[in-house]
Structures are given as C-alpha cells and as structure tokens.
Write a structure and sequence with these properties.
Layout lengths: L2 H12 L11 E7 L4 E5 L12 H11 L5 E8 L9 H10 L6 E5 L5 E5 H4 L16
Parallel strand pairs: 3-4
Antiparallel strand pairs: 1-2, 1-3, 4-5
Length: 137
C-alpha cells in the first residue's frame, strides 16, 4: 500500500474527529504486517485525560480485529505543520511494533511530510518482562 493510500485513509478518518475543544482534527492510518489498514480519529472529552488520540484509536481498532504488528503509521491533521504522535501514542505504537524500524509519517495541511522510524522518535519505551512464573506454595 502506498503512502498516498494510507494518507487518504487517515484523512477519511480525520473527517469523523470530535474536536470541540482544540478544534484540531487528527486522523491516523496504520498499515499492519498482515496488509490490513486501520484508521482512527481523535475523540476529545471535556475531561481532557479521557481524550483519545487518533493513533491510539487506530491501534485499538487493529488490536480488536486481531491484528497486532504495525509496519507504518501515517498521521494527518488540520495543522499547518506535521504533527508527530505524543509520548502516550508512541508507547501504544511500540507495544505492537515489530521493532524500532516501524515507520512514522506525519503530513501537514500544506503537504509537508516528515518521516521517522519509531526507534528514532521513541528509543526507550516502557518494556515489561512478559514471562509468567508459576507460584507454588
């Protein structure tokens, strides 16, 4: 899938954004390793901590549909300059990225493009040892 196709999916999702407080609509599209694309938009809330960013909206859709390996993230917005994912979104993306090579692409309103790898933007995400140990007693 091309960058243009991913940007189109992100822009389509952005149209559904709920942004009555910031007035900044954001859309994100994820290309997964299995070839599927999942898009999401920001959903603001008067209790700002309850706001969901477009990137996490898309991650939740992907995971709820059984897809768990992100290859590329494209973010679009109404902003003049490209917006990069926030730290919370980068952490959510890193949970489902195969490695630091996952691509992050941000597109500004006037066509400016910024490209990064997850490893460059977020080199040290939170990692938990997922080994489950049985406790006998």
């Amino acid at each position: 899938m091309s960058l243009q196709e991913l940007a189109t999916a992100a822009r389509k999702a952005m149209k559904n954004a709920y942004a009555p407080y910031s007035h900044l609509r954001v859309g994100a599209a994820l290309l997964m390793d299995d070839g599927r694309v999942f898009a999401g938009c920001n959903v603001e809330n008067a209790a700002f901590a309850a706001t969901v960013c477009a990137e996490r909206s898309a991650v939740s859709k992907a995971v709820s549909e059984g897809s768990r390996s992100i290859r590329t993230v494209v973010v679009v917005s109404d902003a003049e300059t490209p917006l990069l994912p926030c730290g919370t979104c980068l952490q959510a993306i890193s949970e489902f990225a195969t490695d630091g090579a996952t691509k992050i692409v941000a597109l500004g309103k006037k066509g400016r493009v910024e490209k990064f790898t997850l490893g460059r933007l977020f080199p040290s995400g939170v990692r938990v040892n997922r080994t489950i140990r049985s406790v006998t007693g």
